[in-house]
Amino acid sequence: MEIADRILVAGAGVAGAASAEALLDRGRAVTVYDRADSERLRGLAERGARTVSAPDFDPGLLDAIEQVVVSPGFPPHHPVAAAAARRGLETYSEPELAWRLRGHGAPRWLAVTGTNGKTTTTTMLAAMLGAAGLRTAALGNIGEPLVFAANGPYDALAVELSSQQLHWSRLLAPEAGAMLNLAPDHLAWHGAFDAYAEAKTAIWRGGAAVANLDDPAVAALAEHTPAPVTGFTLGEPEPGQFGVALGSLVDRTGSAPVPICPVDRVRPAGAHNVANALAAAALARLAGVGHEAIGRALREYTPEAHRNVTVAESGGVRWVDDSKATNPHAAAAALAAYEPIVWIAGGQLKGVDIDDLAARFSGRMRAAILIGQDRAEVADALARHAPGLPVTVLEGEDDSVMTDLVAAAAAYARPGDTVLLSPAAASFDMFDSYAHRGDAYAAAIRHTLGMDDRGGDE
């Protein structure tokens, strides 16, 4: 049986609560465990779930349980997952549950994974599907829970999937899946880069693979997948590939090259976003979307917030919010785009080394301002590679530190500089999310510079 009768749902966050609701709607006996009581947990109890809140997990809760649905944030070594493994219980997360809930006529899945660029690519893909007249949504690691969309009202779903979600999957097999890039991330969760990369390959469990041929790690994995591969490159494509030629995105998978969209019309700007657009275009073509609809969607695409967006320009200084850069690989794309830079960085490094980023880009920096849990690690890396670089380390523990941060950046910045929030680290030590971090940064800029709420936009 793909979905058992007696299921433990571990974690009462958005994904866990949605999973429990979907299972209750289908008559399953559901136990929900969370570390702390909450309004969401109480609501599930009113729906008929057995609910348990306790700081420590009691393995006895698994007595008579047949399957376990875990929050994607639960690593394999979490007490719930470890106890389930010892008992041989099948364990998976909300996207896998959504896949198992699909019935006849369910929406097609086109999926995206990678270390960076997932949300941009997924929303670009949804725009392309919509431009072709398909009922669609960008879901998965974004948007409404997949379990609520498993059987409509959509024709096709653009699905963003993280390495954690893919790790906790078994049957999930999208019609086509794209891997954008691979760099060390979430190593504390997965334990090693190889395990992280292996989890990502589940995106190709279905019928077709889309792969970034410019990324050596992705290209190497693509060589060993049994799925047919459509590659994309920022160079001129060979037959069977997507790429760039004569200033345009080009599809060479047919009998003749077909231009799709001028490179300079891709937003957000930057080579990494051209790669994202190529990946989305390849997925859309595999789904049967025409070139005209793909090009129109790209030209009309509105970028998501907190991704290399200019918040304000004042006194010749550009202030950029790239709060979505939650790892060094993502921050590198923004650091390569500007010079000179007043760099704002820090947060939770998630076990990832910051040394290479400091070595590559410290020469582009006028100064650095560091915040967050792992600020000392960033400071040490900059001291090794740029001992003369002015560095300010701020010790605030909440978003009030942004006022001091902006004041310090304003003191360092000169006309022609870019003040760049591209933290290379996660936000949860100080903020609710990367969006909260970016919003706090923008608010502090407007307050400090005496601006209204209109700011600027790139």
Give the arrangement of secondary structure elements.
Blueprint: E1 6-10, H1 14-25, E2 29-34, H2 39-47, E3 50-53, E4 67-70, H3 79-86, E5 90-92, H4 94-101, E6 108-113, H5 118-131, E7 136-140, E8 156-160, H6 163-167, E9 176-179, H7 187-190, H8 193-200, E10 209-212, H9 216-222, E11 229-232, E12 241-245, E13 248-251, E14 258-262, H10 271-286, H11 291-300, E15 309-314, E16 317-321, H12 328-335, E17 341-345, H13 355-361, E18 365-370, H14 375-385, E19 391-393, H15 401-412, E20 418-421, H16 434-449
Parallel strand pairs: 1-2, 1-4, 2-3, 4-5, 6-8, 6-9, 7-8, 9-10, 10-11, 11-12, 16-20, 17-18, 17-20, 18-19
Antiparallel strand pairs: 12-13, 13-14, 15-16
Helix pairs in contact: 1-2, 5-10, 5-11, 13-14, 15-16
Task: Describe the protein in words.
The protein has three domains: 6-92, NAD(P)-binding Rossmann-like Domain (Rossmann fold), CATH 3.40.50; 99-300, UDP-N-acetylmuramoyl-L-alanine:D-glutamate ligase, CATH 3.40.1190; 309-449, Mur ligase, C-terminal domain (Protein-Tyrosine Phosphatase, Chain A). It has a nine-stranded mixed β-sheet, sandwiched between helices. A six-stranded mixed β-sheet has the order 15-16-20-17-18-19, sandwiched between helices. The chain has a five-stranded parallel β-sheet with strand order 3-2-1-4-5, with helices on both faces. Helix content is 34%, strand content 20%. With 458 residues, the protein is α/β, with parallel strands linked by helices. Strand 12 (241-245) and strand 13 form a beta hairpin. The protein has 16 helices and 20 strands. The longest helix has 16 residues, at 271-286. The chain has helices at residues 14-25, 39-47, 79-86, 94-101, 118-131, 163-167, 187-190, 193-200, 216-222, 271-286, 291-300, 328-335, 355-361, 375-385, 401-412, 434-449; strands at residues 6-10, 29-34, 50-53, 67-70, 90-92, 108-113, 136-140, 156-160, 176-179, 209-212, 229-232, 241-245, 248-251, 258-262, 309-314, 317-321, 341-345, 365-370, 391-393, 418-421. Mean pLDDT is 93; it is low at 452-458.
